[in-house]
Amino acid sequence: MRPRELQLHWAFSSAKADSCTCAAFLNRHTCRSRAGPLGCAQFKSSINWFSMRFVSYLIWPLIFVGQLLATGLLAWHLLAQINFAYPTGYKLLGLDTHIAKFAPRNRYIHGFEFTRPKDHWDLFAQITHAVQNNGEGLEEIHFTLPNDTKIPLMHNAEIIHLQDVSHLIHTFYLVGIAGFFMWIISLAIAYRQKLSFPSLRNIVLGFCGGIFIISAIVLSLGATKVFYWLHTKVFPEGHQWFFYYEDSLMTTLMKAPDIFAFIATLLLVVLMIIWGLSTLGMARLFSKNAVVEQAAITTTNNKNRKKRN
Q1: Measured on CA atoms in the order 65, 71, 73, 76, is the torsion positive or negative?
Q2: Is residue 179 classed exposed, middle or buried when 0-12, 13-18 and 19+ CB atoms within 10 A define those classes?
Q3: How do residues 7-22 score in pLDDT, each as one tens digit?
């Protein structure tokens, strides 16, 4: 051969030998006999373990976030059906005395001091129904004087504010529904993958710890300040959201922000009940899954022993 051909032949032979050596090395270290430390079975088992761990770390946050959004929406919706227990809050917060004090001072609408507690409960129910339905009917809300004169409860700025509230509630419903589907889909994946359910103790500690931290931050900053700050972030700029009692029968009727503290407490209690029941339900579901899986493993092991015998 010519020098050039010899050089090419030598290079081809060397590459072929190297490829065979690499193949043999990989075969020896990845596909050795089952008893080997890095055998194919163990290699596949390691891959499955890592993939399961990755799915577990990803899926459980999705499940619990979706669960919180869905249960929060359910708690809100249930309380809305009973008008957020306004008559109870009315009595606890002394709203009758508050209304009797500030209604005569209103600079826009007069005569509200002649209404009765039952009228106040009905007016709040109408407001709740309106904001739960995209603000429909807010302009028609009125109260009746003893001489049967009908007077609108709210002026234009109050109506605009409650329309903004209704839009915010509508967005909350969309987020809650999306959270529900994320919860159910993620839960189905975890169940199908036979993932182990986290410790109930850790879940409860995490949930209660989160509530404690948020509550501590809010109380340290001041609940009223946080309440007002949130209003500046969630409502459109230029829309009035703060009303003095002398300028708003809506605010007088609710003794804002006191009534919202009552509703928030009630909402938290209902949320904790629904969240706790749903968490126990998930734990029970996955415990049955674990029992079925363990029974299947035991059956397989028994069959293998019989074959060996």
Answers
A1: negative
A2: buried
A3: 434 444 444 444 444 4
